[in-house]
Amino acid sequence: MPLQPHLVQRFVDACGEQSVLADQSECWTYGFDNSKQHACPDLVVLPQDAKQIQECVQLCRQFNIPLTTRGRGTNTTGAAVPVQSGIVLSTERMDRILEVDRSNRNMRVEPGVLNSTVQKRAAEVGLFWPPDPGSADYCTVGGNLACNAAGPRAIKYGTCRENTLEILAVTGAGHLIRTGSATTKGVVGLDLTRLLIGSEGILAIITEARLKLGAIAERTDTIRACYQDTQSAIDAVVSILAQSALPCALEFIDEGSLNLIRGQETIALDSDAKAMLIIEVDGLTPAVDADVAAVLEAAKNPGCVDLKNASESRQREELWRARKVLSQALRSFAPSKINEDVVVPVSQLPALLLDLERLSKEFSIPIFNFGHAGNGNIHVNLLYDESDSRQAAAARQCLNKVFDLVLKLGGTLSGEHGVGVSKRDWVDRELNPEVLSLMMKIKQQFDPDGILNPGKVLPNLAVSD
Amino acid sequence: MPLQPHLVQRFVDACGEQSVLADQSECWTYGFDNSKQHACPDLVVLPQDAKQIQECVQLCRQFNIPLTTRGRGTNTTGAAVPVQSGIVLSTERMDRILEVDRSNRNMRVEPGVLNSTVQKRAAEVGLFWPPDPGSADYCTVGGNLACNAAGPRAIKYGTCRENTLEILAVTGAGHLIRTGSATTKGVVGLDLTRLLIGSEGILAIITEARLKLGAIAERTDTIRACYQDTQSAIDAVVSILAQSALPCALEFIDEGSLNLIRGQETIALDSDAKAMLIIEVDGLTPAVDADVAAVLEAAKNPGCVDLKNASESRQREELWRARKVLSQALRSFAPSKINEDVVVPVSQLPALLLDLERLSKEFSIPIFNFGHAGNGNIHVNLLYDESDSRQAAAARQCLNKVFDLVLKLGGTLSGEHGVGVSKRDWVDRELNPEVLSLMMKIKQQFDPDGILNPGKVLPNLAVSD
Question: Cβ contacts (< 8 Å) between A192 and chain B: which residues?
């Protein structure tokens, strides 16, 4: 329902005419994210600075309007979908890099800057920002921080939580706060920086962040290791992590996914290969030689059927293309896909994958698994046809069992995608009531009127004492 | 004031007779920490499990008794001193290692286990826990987590916040909560794990933690680099951090401290040396060779007067002994010492050290500086005689100016020691009122009656909306 004209005018007064979209056809496009869910916002605002954001928040408080912040909507959980309508605040016009501090290895940015823009600018001074989600080319840093995005490099370099020094944000109460400090260490007061990171816009709207950068490695080698079964592949993962040459990527691809790759014929794979690891090692050139040797040694076990160091960039590209081709292959395999990103302790990966195979058969839902094995973080893809009601119901029942399984194995429901709308109903299976109650109380302190991204992350439960 | 006998009996009922110390002479010794401040508790409890802790918290809530948790009291800020009397809860009898999970590189421990015990047990399976405070031999993991302890290795391996997976804790409301997960990635709900780490016992009492371990490096080399002035030394720090061979320690020692070391004659130092770096590089043997070469190259600049790789363990020990001898030397230099641990952006270290020299002259207070230069984290030692009231007043005025200086340079008042009582009055200079207000409101959600470690960390301010 469109806002009343006098209210729209208030937002125009706050942000300027060019920064408010009231036309419903324009609003419509801001109602999606990559979850394919949709809810049309009543109004879209495109503020250009923190002050305008504060004014928007004040207006939303005053008139009790829900406010959903979005970057480029690449998240897969519905976290950026305005499920209770109201305002969508897009940070797309706050996309400036404010400062590159080479000496202190950090960069101050606005939330709407793309991850890839940060990487490009950092690379000019020999640095990089570790979080590298698959959508790096078109996702924003603000969205990365809101979801604590990661990617393959997290195994060595950490997630957003380990790579953000300072945040400026507007709380749901309309206050501009500064958390953390410009330094790489600091213990004054409570850690609100990490509390904001991963909070999916339910506490505050990030208006600026100082990102911690690292030095780009001189060389990166990519190892391809194929195994006759899952257990052997995961044994190799455990062995690799037990020695001191820590890879900067340690990716797993299961048998079904390998078969999809084979179908694309982009890469020659041993016919005995039923699980594959892609392992990357980076550092100075002579150090990489030593580290690769150690990793190859650790990766070798009786179940290993193929082990190659793709030191040439052509071979590296071929390998990563094979990994990337997977997403397209999955799309052509079935019209609908549930893409989860569960995590279990690394040693439980064989049990997880074995039970996923069992669930796949039980529900007649093909499941393809690949992901960041070094963190135990697997992307579980359930493929089905949403227009077939029987299949759709089976997929959801199966997903339910997947979550049960993950929690039984001591895992967590999400490693990097977050909760949003998609996993909100399962959160209370993982977190106990006292913890949930504390989270809801913290939310109330930041956002006393509950205007920020309502209907996300935390379930609708009464707050207990 | 001792508790009334019927109240003492309630704690005896909760924890057992052997676990309650009511005798004032016994209580007295639990009133200190390494800040040298003292306040005698009314009662000391030594619980053996989380359930006993919950019962103690419930009793303290019921009878409105302050409750201060302590490990071994090695902190320097008064954080473990029961400034409002009441109960001291010592975790010393909860010192078990509950699980060593080699495959998943983590260890589940009770809070009273010593840091060095964790390291010893981890080393048996080729692993280590990164936080390495100077007091590792006699400080507890619970205390480490409460203060977010770090040490030299933080530059490469991070602090407690980067190396803790899961926490069990009893809140001030008496609820047992579990935060985080057994996995190295997780984004379900708000990050309460990091919120508890560094909260100095004002939110909850940690009853168990799952520590994230890393693989022990095959070899560690130690480089000694001496410079003719501070600026050259810090230029070297910046250059070292700009290349990809990241050291696992990057320590700075200033001229005054070098002179103290010279006085101890444990090590031959070039007479031109007015600043020294101790740099450690670890990894696989051939990788260390490459990394050391790169670090030596980066450390070399026109101001460098001496550059040596102490590859032999005898030379390494000599170097670290020199660093360690400093603390004793400082003690013999003057009867009283204020030991701060401020942090500034690395590039601001020369400005900080220059201005500290100026302040030292202005107040006639000798100041010695050394510390973790890679993190911009410097231990600033003000030496004076507390029994000389003029000197004591000058030291405090000088300290005040030191804090002003640090904040002016974009720094933070504490990198690893924390706030406790010592820095509480300065916290509102660093944190803005809205941030402080949020922290106080969060404290209220965890500890509605304000019984946990009252008078610490957060200043006494009215909570605003």
Answer: 435, 438-439
pLDDT of residue A310: 81
The CA distance from B295 to the nearest CA of chain A, in Å, is: 11
Q: Which amino acid is at B145?
A: L
| Tokens of residue B6, six digits | 């019927």
* Residue A440 to residues A78, A211, A355, A437, B435, Cα–Cα distance (Å): 20, 28, 34, 5, 18
* Tens of pLDDT, residues B17-51: 999 999 999 999 999 999 989 999 999 999 999 99
Cα–Cα distance, B207 to A429 (Å, whole number)? 22
Mutation pick from B183, B231, B288 vs chain A, by most beta carbons of A within 10 Å, is: B183
B387-442 residue pLDDT tens: 999 999 999 999 999 999 999 999 999 999 999 999 999 999 999 999 999 999 99
Choose, out of A132, A164, A187, A431, the residue to mutate when testing the contact with B (most B CBs < 10 Å): A187
Q: Which amino acid is at A279?
A: I
Looking at the DSSP bridge assignments, the partners of residue B87 are B43, B67
Q: Any residues with CB less than 8 A from the CB of B413 and at least 6 apart, and which?
A: A188, B340, B342, B403, B406, B407, B419, B423, B426, B427, B429, B430
- Reported ipTM exceeds the 0.85 cut: yes
Whether A464 shows a pLDDT value over 60: the answer reads no
Q: In the A/B pair of chains, how many CB contacts fall below 8 A?
A: 304
Subunit contact A347:B217, Cβ cutoff 8 A: no
Instruction: Report CA-CA distances (Å) from A303 to A223, A232, A245, A260, B36.
Output: 16, 5, 22, 22, 60
| Overall average pLDDT of the A63-74 stretch | 97
Where does B64-109 have alpha helices with state H? none
Cβ contact A197–B191 (<8 Å): yes
Q: Which of A178, A294, A412 sits opposite B181 (nearest CB)?
A: A412
For chain A, say whether B285 makes contact (Cβ under 8 Å): yes
pLDDT average, residue stretch A105-126:
98
Residue A29, pLDDT > 80, answer: yes
Strand partners, B212: B106
Predicted model pTM = 0.97
Compute the C-alpha angle A459/A463/A465, nearest 5°. Answer: 145
In B, which residues are within 8 Å of A158 by CB distance? 158, 162
